[in-house]
TrEMBL record:
<keyword id="KW-0479">Metal-binding</keyword>
<protein>
    <recommendedName>
        <fullName>GRF-type domain-containing protein</fullName>
    </recommendedName>
</protein>
<dbReference type="GO" id="GO:0008270">
    <property type="term" value="F:zinc ion binding"/>
</dbReference>
<keyword id="KW-0862">Zinc</keyword>
<dbReference type="InterPro" id="IPR010666">
    <property type="entry name" value="Znf_GRF"/>
</dbReference>
<keyword id="KW-0863">Zinc-finger</keyword>
<dbReference type="Pfam" id="PF06839">
    <property type="entry name" value="Zn_ribbon_GRF"/>
</dbReference>
<feature type="domain" description="GRF-type">
    <location>
        <begin position="19"/>
        <end position="61"/>
    </location>
</feature>
Length: 91
C-alpha cells in the first residue's frame, strides 16, 4: 500500500492530546455502524469508573460509501457469529 508507512508511531504519540484527567489519550477504534472503523482519542480510563468524557476524532471524515461497506461487513460478521453459536448448540 503506497503511503501507508508515512505515519510513524512516534509522530502519532507526540500529537496525542491530553484528556480531562490530564493523561494522554490513546487512539481507540469505533466498531459501531454509526462510525465503523473510525479512530478517535478517548480517555484511557474509558469504560472504568472514571467519568471522563474526553473525545476527539483522530481520522478525518471518511466517505459515506466507506461506512456502507464496513457496516455490511459488520452485519455479515454478526450473522456468521450467531450461526456459529446455533451450530455449537445443536451438537
Ligand atoms: Zn480522562
Amino acid at each position: 500500500m503506497q503511503g501507508s508507512s508515512s505515519i510513524s508511531s512516534s509522530s502519532v504519540n507526540a500529537s496525542m492530546p491530553h484528556c480531562h484527567c490530564g493523561v494522554r489519550s490513546p487512539i481507540r477504534t469505533v466498531w459501531k455502524c454509526d462510525y465503523p472503523g473510525r479512530r478517535f482519542y478517548g480517555c484511557s480510563g474509558y469504560g472504568t469508573n472514571k467519568r471522563c468524557s474526553f473525545f476527539q476524532w483522530y481520522d478525518p471524515d471518511p466517505l459515506a460509501r466507506y461506512f456502507d461497506v464496513i457496516c455490511k461487513l459488520l452485519e455479515t460478521n454478526e450473522g456468521i457469529r450467531s450461526e456459529n453459536m446455533e451450530l455449537k448448540k445443536s451438537r
